[in-house]
Specification:
- The protein has one helix and 23 strands.
- The chain has one helix at 2-17; strands spanning 27-31, 34-41, 47-55, 67-69, 80-84, 89-93, 107-111, 116-120, 134-137, 145-148, 151-152, 158-159, 162-167, 172-177, 190-194, 199-203, 206-207, 210-211, 214-219, 224-229, 239-242, 246-250, 259-263.
- The strands form seven sheets. Strands 1-2-3-4 form a four-stranded antiparallel sheet. Strands 5-6-7-8 form a four-stranded antiparallel sheet, with no helix packed on it.
- A hairpin with a 4-residue loop joins strand 13 and strand 14.
- The protein is globular, with a radius of gyration of 19 Å.
Length: 264
């Protein structure tokens, strides 16, 4: 019995400290003090179904984060991650349609309460080939998940101008076009939720095939989008821009050093 106990202990220890394979195009989101990361492309179209979480409320060495292995999800990459605080669920949207091995579901749900995956059909959106959407989750009670734009088509060379609102409780997706002056046919923009405004903030990316230096705020209660221009207009240079509502700063966005947006 002693060897068996030792083996089980080692297995349990390994499941906590295993490290995810480095991959691009993973779906990720942080909620309830945890970062969830699922799927991804190891390179050359080698998609994986790995699924890990990282406890952000604890300290750990940057060289060896204490990842927790979760039940493997669908094989997928270039999908987007959101969450439902009400339903204790991690939700991914989109699928790598160009791979013969990827999931057939556009929406995939993992319950953090039950530790299980539930796939939902791709017919819930007009174009089930979409991926790489900009996404934000409303963390308040009854909050929904918002995603817009993205690549489309089997090869991913098409562009989508759709804006979708997903209600996990009712399992309903409401879809319309991104309202102007919002980002049209957006590709690669980053998004987050503004609690004090109950709105979705979208920054950067490529809109109508042009690099964008505009910050957009979509307000669901009115169904409108406001735009805030930063200067200079060239997003490839070092710049900071401001107006009465928002301040934007970046240290060479093309170098990957990031953007900062301050909404006031």
């Amino acid at each position: 019995m002693i060897p068996l106990i030792l083996i089980c202990s080692i297995a349990a220890f390994s499941s906590v400290h295993a490290q995810p394979h480095p991959a691009g195009g993973s779906a990720f989101v942080a909620f309830h003090d945890r970062l969830y990361v699922q799927g991804g492309d190891l390179g050359g179209g080698n998609l994986v179904n790995q699924f890990y979480s990282l406890d952000l409320s604890r300290g750990w060495q940057t060289t060896s984060p204490v990842w927790n292995t979760l039940p493997s999800g669908p094989i997928n990459a270039y999908h987007s991650g959101g969450f439902s605080a009400d339903m204790n669920s991690f939700v991914t949207f989109g699928r790598e349609a160009g791979s013969p091995y990827t999931t057939t579901n556009f929406i995939n749900i993992f319950s953090t309460s039950t530790g299980s995956w539930i796939g939902t059909g791709s017919t819930m959106v007009a174009d089930p080939t979409r991926r790489d959407m900009s996404i934000a989750s409303d963390p308040t009670p009854g909050g929904q998940i918002y995603f817009m734009g993205g690549d489309a088509g089997q090869s991913g060379t098409g562009r989508s101008n759709a804006l979708d609102i997903y209600n996990l409780k009712s399992s309903v997706v409401s879809e319309t076009n991104v309202p102007t002056p919002g980002p049209q046919n957006l590709q690669g923009g980053a998004a987050t939720w503004l609690l004090d405004r109950n709105a979705m903030l979208v920054i950067g990316g490529v809109s109508d095939n042009n690099e964008s230096n505009v910050v957009y705020i979509y307000t669901p209660s009115t169904g409108t989008t406001g735009s805030y221009l930063s200067t200079p207009s060239n997003p490839g240079s070092n710049y900071g821009g401001s107006n009465s509502n928002i301040n934007i700063a970046s240290s060479s966005p093309n170098s990957g050093s990031g953007w900062i947006a301050q909404v006031t």
